Amino acid sequence: MKRIGFIGCGNMAQAMIGGIVKAGKYPGSRITASDLNEKNLAAVVERYGIEAAANNIQCAEGADIVILAVKPNLYERIISEVRDAFREDAIVVTIAAGRSMDSTEGAFGRRIKVVRVMPNTPSLVGEGMSSLCNNDLVSEGELQEVVEIFESFGRTEVVEEKLMDVVTSVSGSAPAYIYMFIEAMADGAVLDGMPREKAYKMAAQTVLGAAKMVVETGKHPGQLKDEVCSPGGTTIEAVATFEEKGLRNAVITAMRRCTEKSREMSRG
Ligand SMILES: NC(=O)C1=CN([C@@H]2O[C@H](COP(=O)(O)OP(=O)(O)OC[C@H]3O[C@@H](n4cnc5c(N)ncnc54)[C@H](OP(=O)(O)O)[C@@H]3O)[C@@H](O)[C@H]2O)C=CC1
Ligand SMILES: O=C(O)[C@@H]1CCC=N1
Predict the structure, then answer these.
(1) Which of 49, 72, 232, 243 sits 20 to 30 Å CA-CA off 26?
(2) Any known ligand binding at 133?
(3) Which helix (H) or strand (E) holds 106?
(4) 8: alpha, beta or left? (left if phi > 0; alpha if psi -120 to 50)
């Protein structure tokens, strides 16, 4: 069984480690992580039974698949620190927004197997959405191995690299928009007298159920919406108000900004 190394053990790495271990795909003993924040790392080791590396170099040396889970602006520094520790046939997996595979190879200063992935934090509860692309050194079998890691805690898509900026907008960053929507729904319910905890539960379960309807029935979201809107009823009042307030336009405009930001980050 391969060893997976995480360099950086913050929000996204913890969501992935939690997802992998809970799925039973890899035991904690096959996962190593390094992080500057020792307290943080010790808590993850304690929670998931993974191994702590003394530093980033040790983490890279022992791993077959090394996931770089630090902020994009640290990539150059971390890669120059660990590049000589990488095993010849190791695969580097990048999850940073706006970080092209070419720029990763450039930082290594040599050809290296790269898989670029954009995951999201619902990985922690087994409902992640991760999109992947790979460079020409990665074989079909190696890509499949990486896909299987990400599939153990959610759904995956293999996409062309040029789609990675919009992937960031539609799934990487998107949980934040949904949390805002849930929070806003709960605020609306609290305004009309609902206790807040109940409001969060009702709003979140409704988002979960509606998403499951789209995924499992295969029906168009517009049709599912129509099935809720009784003629002259309550729902169409809310739908008409959302249109009046420009919900659809706000979502599209915000997502274009997000995609553009990812493109800007790619340009450096
Ligand atoms: N959060 C998300 O929803 C998603 C994030 N991503 C990508 O994941 C990457 C990580 O993001 P995220 O998890 O949110 O960030 P975090 O800041 O939560 O995690 C990064 C971790 O790396 C640590 N770190 C900083 N410097 C070093 C170093 N020199 N060596 C080792 N560890 C170090 C940080 O410690 P300290 O806190 O002490 O600085 C922190 O624990 C980013 O590239 C981001 O684009 C991708 C998809 C979704
Ligand atoms: O906000 C960010 O830049 C990262 C990338 C996708 C989600 N979080």
Answers:
(1) 72
(2) no
(3) helix 101-108
(4) left
Q: Which residues pair with 130 in a beta bridge?
A: 156
Ligand with the closest atom to the CA of 39: 1
97 ligand 2 Cβ < 6 A? yes
CA 11 to ligand 1 center in whole angstroms = 7
Confirm if 139 and 91 have CB atoms less than 8 A apart: no
Closest CA to 139 of 78, 188, 91, 194: 91
**DSSP tag of 10:** S
List the domain boundaries for the chain.
4-161, 174-267
The span from the CA of 173 to the CA of 212, in Å, is 20
What is the ipTM metric for this complex? Answer: 0.97
- Give the CATH H-level superfamily of domain 4-161: NAD(P)-binding Rossmann-like Domain (3.40.50.720)
Which pLDDT tens digit goes with each residue over 155-202?
999 999 999 999 999 999 999 999 999 999 999 999 999 999 999 999
Q: Is 69 annotated as a binding residue?
A: yes
Non-local CB neighbours of 120 within 8 Å, separated by 6+ positions? 15, 128, 129, 130, 171, 172, 173, 174, 175
**Which whole-number Å values give the CA distances from 176 to 33, 186, 230, in the listed order?**
26, 15, 31
Q: Mean pLDDT per segment of 10 residues, for the chain of length 268 residues?
A: 96 95 93 96 97 97 96 96 95 97 96 98 96 98 96 97 98 98 98 98 98 98 98 98 98 98 92
* Ligand 2 binding pocket includes 169 (Cβ within 6 Å): no
Of the candidate CATH numbers 1.10.260.40, 1.10.3730.10, 3.40.50.1100, 3.30.470.20, the domain formed by 174-267 belongs to: 1.10.3730.10
User: Residue type at 150?
Assistant: F
User: What pTM does this model have?
Assistant: 0.96
